């Protein structure tokens, strides 16, 4: 009892251990203009045939009915907008928060289902990005004539200590293979059903570790091949980096990159393609390249693959100034607006170098004119998706591998485009 309270007083006191029935209408939990309703309307208009085609349950059939994919899609989209990136936290919010309870509509969800769905529907999200932006392009809201490209490095799930040199990986692989062989022998020799399940679990764990180490060995070979190719392209007798390549035994596709704060950590390089006119993200790719140099041509090819058209202009910062890329774009009649090395963000006189092709010469001439440099500055529109994703929790990936990393990043892209569509054309969202 509170200080001053006495049993002789007659007051209505709280009784929290009493079971009681409660009357509630889920539709009354949120207001008529709540964002959750807008998200649900948006998801209802999305093409989710690929998700529904995976369902085999039919009326009258045996088994439990699966959760409607639209519910899971709406939950993760709304959670991304609210900065929620944990499946466990989302499952708790579905029990306590009114907006999430309204979205579930009485359907129970657990963190395993939420986590699996988040990373498994990457192909659907990628197709949704293409379909939604193509629809806006046909209505004139999004322009595909000008493309702004920029990259952002996001911390990977792999730890710095998980990187091993190629020679060390050979020894680890041999140890893992020996351990797996011993576990198989123990499993075959023990007929007891009581301990067989534990032995099978240990065997699966050993095989998984062996597979991760093998993937790391292949990654180390790829890194060495990339170094040799780079040395060949730069006409070097030996690669610039002479240290033995290292790869992670937990996430073989992650690479050590220099981050925005100057430190070096395992990360992925996300390549955002943005329409400067609308501010919408029209393309996304994930790469293990620590440098953006050489990624302009793949960016244009992605837009051509998605929408069947090629942009007339490409805007990018000085990290994308690879001459081979600029020459390739020139051959496709695409103008590259990229600062010349050493210009420090200002117009500089064209200074053609010996051996440069017509595309590089035209690029130098283009970037020496103030009016063209003003066009380049429209590139800063593509910084907004980065900031939006960072503010909504995209600081570090909790998943591993290109496919899952791209799926996690696509949730932020879809959420950002949803907000942009509300701003540009409320009736679309």
* CATH fold-level name of the largest domain: Nucleotidyltransferase, domain 5
Number of strands: 8
Radius of gyration: 27 Å
How many domain units?
A: 3
The percent range for helix content is 40-55%
- Characterize the main sheet: 6 strands, mixed
Mean pLDDT: 87
Could you tell me how far the N terminus lies from the C terminus, measured between alpha carbons in angstroms? 52 Å
Order of helices and strands: HHHHHHHEEHHEEEEHEHEHHHH
Can you tell me the CATH class of the largest domain?
Alpha Beta
CATH architecture of the largest domain: 2-Layer Sandwich
Which band does the percent of strand residues land in?
A: 5-15%
Please report the number of helical segments: 15
Name the shape in a single word.
Answer: globular
Low-confidence stretches: none
Structural class: alpha/beta
3D structure, described in words:
There is one protein chain. By secondary structure, the protein is α/β, with parallel strands linked by helices. The chain has 3 domains: 86 residues, no CATH class; 162 residues, Nucleotidyltransferase, domain 5 (2-Layer Sandwich); 89 residues. It contains 15 helices and 8 strands. Strands 1, 4, 5, 6, 7 and 8 form a 6-stranded mixed sheet that branches. Strand 4 and strand 5 form a beta hairpin. Helix 1 crosses helix 3. The longest helix is centred in the middle third of the chain and has 41 residues. The radius of gyration is 27 Å and the shape is globular.
């Amino acid at each position: 009892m509170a200080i001053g309270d006495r049993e002789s007083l007659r007051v209505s006191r709280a009784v929290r251990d009493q079971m009681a029935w409660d009357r509630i209408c889920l539709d009354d939990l949120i207001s008529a203009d709540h964002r959750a309703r807008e998200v649900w309307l948006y998801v209802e208009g999305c093409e989710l045939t690929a998700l529904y085609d995976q369902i085999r349950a039919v009326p009258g059939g045996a088994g439990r009915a699966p959760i409607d994919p639209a519910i899971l899609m709406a939950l993760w989209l709304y959670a991304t907008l609210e900065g929620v990136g944990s499946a466990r936290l989302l499952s708790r919010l579905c029990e306590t928060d009114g907006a999430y309870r309204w979205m579930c509509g009485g359907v129970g969800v657990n963190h395993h289902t939420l986590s699996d769905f988040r990373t498994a529907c990457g192909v659907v999200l990628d197709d949704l990005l293409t379909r939604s932006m193509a629809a806006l392009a046909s209505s004139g809201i999004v322009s595909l004539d000008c493309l702004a490209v920029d990259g952002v490095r996001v911390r990977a799930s792999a730890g710095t200590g998980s990187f091993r040199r190629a020679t060390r990986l050979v020894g680890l692989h041999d140890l893992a293979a020996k351990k797996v062989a011993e576990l198989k022998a123990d499993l075959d020799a023990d007929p007891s059903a009581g301990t067989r399940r534990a032995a099978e679990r240990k065997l699966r764990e050993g095989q998984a570790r062996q597979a991760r180490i093998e993937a790391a060995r292949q990654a180390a070979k790829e890194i060495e091949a990339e170094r040799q190719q780079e040395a060949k392209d730069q006409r070097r007798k030996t690669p610039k980096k002479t240290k033995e390549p290292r790869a992670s035994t937990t996430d073989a596709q992650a690479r050590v990159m220099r981050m925005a704060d100057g430190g070096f950590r395992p990360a992925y390089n996300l390549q955002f393609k943005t329409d400067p006119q609308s501010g919408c993200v029209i393309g996304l790719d994930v790469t293990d390249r620590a440098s953006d140099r050489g990624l302009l041509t793949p960016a244009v090819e992605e837009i051509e693959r998605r929408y069947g058209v090629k942009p007339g202009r490409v805007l990018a910062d000085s990290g994308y100034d690879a001459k081979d890329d600029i020459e390739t774009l020139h051959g496709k009649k695409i103008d590259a607006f990229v600062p010349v090395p050493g210009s420090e963000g200002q117009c500089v006189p064209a200074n053609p170098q010996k051996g440069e092709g017509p595309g590089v010469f035209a690029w130098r001439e283009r970037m020496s004119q103030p009016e063209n440099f003003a066009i380049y500055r429209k590139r800063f529109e593509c910084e907004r998706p980065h900031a939006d994703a960072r503010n909504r929790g995209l600081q570090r990936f909790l998943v591993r591998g290109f496919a899952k990393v791209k799926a996690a990043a696509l949730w932020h892209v879809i959420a950002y485009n949803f907000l942009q569509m509300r701003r540009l054309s409320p009736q679309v969202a």
